[in-house]
Here is the input.
Amino acid sequence: MSSTFHEWAPTAGRAEKNVSTFNTATISNQSGAMQELWTTFADLAKPLPDLICFSHLRWDFVFQRPQHLLSRFASQIRTFVIEEPIFDAPQSPGFMHLSSRGENLTIVVPHLPGGYSAAEHNTMQKQLVDQLLQEQSINHFVAWYYTPMALNFSSHLKPAVTVYDCMDELSAFAGAPPELLIREQELFTKADLVFTGGQSLYEAKRDKHPAVYAFPSSIERAHFAQAKTITQQPADQQDIPNPRMGFYGVIDERMDIELVGKVAELRPEWQLIMLGPVVKIDPATLPKPANIHYLGMKSYKELPAYLSGWDVALLPFAMNESTRFISPTKTPEYLSAGIPVVSAPIRDVVKPYGELGLVHIAATAEEFVKAIEQALKQQTDAKWQAEVDKFLSQLSWDKTWGYMTHLICNQLQSR
Here is the structure.
């Protein structure tokens, strides 16, 4: 039952098949014709399920995959996102802080007291989760996991369907709990569906569960295409001279900061714009020549305005365990803005973007410089832009969410 979303979507009466190759080019032909056959929440008997998400990411941090998907679920069903705890409660067991992000979307933050063991904190969170379900009358629900560690306080729940949306190989990240892989194996046992955030991650997980589906990074194309027509530059960018090379996202151990510094050194006339929070690394270690500009974290809404002033977009990732399985959402976002892209040889960027000639691939600072020089000539390349537009026309978060919904609803109907 393992499948890749971009290569194959089920049709009525057709048995599902194993797929191990990535072929995004078929999505428009297949899913476009098949979307009417996808099961939706409207096809389900009422009452509709709620959705409870256990996330290791803060909703108000960087806007990425969870926000794209869960906000769409909230357009149809009540959605609760339970974040990791804050340790500031005055007494045990602490409390849950609920805040609304729309009619059906509630962000839940556990506040626990400090000074207790991990086991005691898990017991408190279990109690608070049970209280949440009771107070919000959550009886019939889908459990959606981004972090297997949440099983430490939620394994007793009885969801109608359990989904593991494996968007990263969390065990490879700095500071990952030693028991994470044990909890992940437990989650594979409990899950009805496993989604992965990219093709390489799919290939790493497909033998661990009978229903693994690859859902690589998608886009809200119209949002980023605004960059093509915006003329007013953000105040903190407008006085930085061109040419500008830019990056946005979390600046952490996944970034090759030495490469960034070397590129700036090799081409002091180029300006490197770095947008995003610095996390899990010492800011003092960042290269700080005059032509690198750290402008801080920007909202999702602001990104097109910054992109509108860039000449080339960068993916200067380090090649290490933490980047082995990443599928950067910003790849199609950069391209949607009409900006040439230069990337490190990240597997899910090389295939398909590099192999199709949509993105330049470079491994060293010297290669980055040469690739950027080529990319600077690409801005007026109508053929390249047409090929990019054709490729991107196949992708959307609506399609990704729609097929995920189809799979979940099929599970619910089979109960």
Q: What stands out?
A: The chain has two domains: 3-218+396-414, 221-392. The chain has 14 helices and 15 strands. Residues 3-218+396-414 form a domain with the Rossmann fold fold (CATH 3.40.50.2000).
